[in-house]
Amino acid sequence: MKKRIVFLLLLAAGVVCNAQQMKFYSDYNNGYQGWAGAVYDSSKSSDYEPLCDFTRWHAEEFAKKYNTDCYKINKLTNEHSFLMWSALNEYNYKIGEVYGVIICTYYGGRYLYAHLCVNIVSSDRVKWVGYQYSSIYK
For residue 135, what are the β-bridge partners? Predict the structure, then answer.
């Protein structure tokens, strides 16, 4: 339980609030670019449902801060998939591990943020739950 709380605090304070822990990734051939960061859930729990609930809550809280709506992501765009895997590839991940991933892209004067809870299923497949919101650049 203590490790789970530490993970949640890292996700909340570290990756999301501190853009310095997020890296800029780009694939110029496909036109993908954005910032992404991942944090490993060190609780060793295979049950990632509580982290998915936290991911939703956290995205909703940030959406309130920016006075915008938060909605569930049903399918990742190719760009989001590229950014998610780029952030995960910073780790030597293993099957069954859980990560929190934050993605930030910029379109037409708005930053779009995606908060993902990711469970590694295989070396090239994940199970995920995600939420997205936007903010206006000022």
Answer: 111
The token duo for 58 is: 């956290």
Is residue 59 helix, strand or coil? helix
pTM of full prediction above 0.85: no
pLDDT on residue 18: 40
* Reduced DSSP (H G I as helix, E B as strand, rest coil) percent helix, strand, coil of the chain, to 5: 35, 40, 30
Distance spanning both ends of the chain, measured CA to CA: 39
Amino acid sitting at position 1:
M
Radius of gyration (C-alpha) of the chain in whole angstroms: 14
DSSP string, 5-27: HHHHHIIIIIIIT-GGGSEEEEE
Which ranges constitute the DSSP H helices of the chain? 2-9, 49-65, 78-88
